[in-house]
Design brief:
- By secondary structure, this protein is mainly β.
- The chain has one domain.
- It is built from 1 helix and 13 strands.
- The strands form 3 sheets. It has a 6-stranded mixed beta sheet with strand order 2-9-8-7-10-11, with helices on one face.
- The longest helix is centred in the middle third of the chain and has 15 residues.
- The N and C termini lie far apart (79 Å).
């Protein structure tokens, strides 16, 4: 397995590669002995190993137990720059895992999308009530958007596209069509 971390000279605290799964890395845990927990991240599950009060434990959880990949903004303290974190969120805040931390918002957005796609969990943002919600409406795995208005007919591209595609007229019945009834043969012969 590959260990995650920052390259030399990088200003981020955490930078894991979503395309290099499985990963094994250490994360901060205030409740654990030594304030460190070991994490193994696979495509379909997650194993958290930590020791609390001398008792060793391992939590083996499927990724479906997690709410999704959230993006968190943190204000900088004592003149430090604000950070953006991509976190694998769980209902229990103690099980939330930081996957990426940076001061660059563009990098964080790209990582947010990548982690969501690789792990198969939804993207989340914080709502006004302190919880999490999805930023885009979805039906299953398909993102739903509002219907866009029709293209105006008097546009620059009007001459490039056939106008028959923008017309919607009902069909007409032809009154002069011949109807053959009472015939014995359907196939005409010479």
């Amino acid at each position: 397995m590959r260990s995650g971390g920052c390259p030399a000279g990088s200003s981020c605290a955490v930078r894991l590669d979503p395309f290099a799964l499985p990963l094994a890395f250490a994360a901060r845990d205030a409740a654990a002995d030594g304030q460190v927990r070991q994490i193994e991240l696979f495509r379909e599950r997650l194993v958290i190993r930590r020791s609390v009060g001398g008792m060793h434990m391992a939590l083996n959880m499927p990724l479906s137990a997690f709410a999704g990949v959230a993006i968190r903004l943190s204000a900088g303290e004592n003149g430090e720059a604000a950070t953006v974190a991509v976190v694998l969120e769980h209902k229990d805040p103690g099980l939330a895992l930081p996957l990426f931390v940076s001061t660059e918002a563009d990098e964080a957005l790209a990582e947010w999308r990548s982690w969501s796609a690789v792990l198969g969990v939804p993207q989340l943002v914080s709502d006004d009530k302190g919880g999490w919600r999805e930023p885009f409406a979805r039906m299953g795995g398909v993102r739903i958007e509002t219907v866009r208005p029709r293209r105006r007919r008097h546009s620059v591209l009007q001459r490039r596209r056939p106008s028959i595609l923008s017309r919607r007229k009902g069909g007409k019945l032809n009154a002069g069509a011949s109807v053959h009834s009472g015939e014995h043969e359907i196939i005409a012969r010479n």
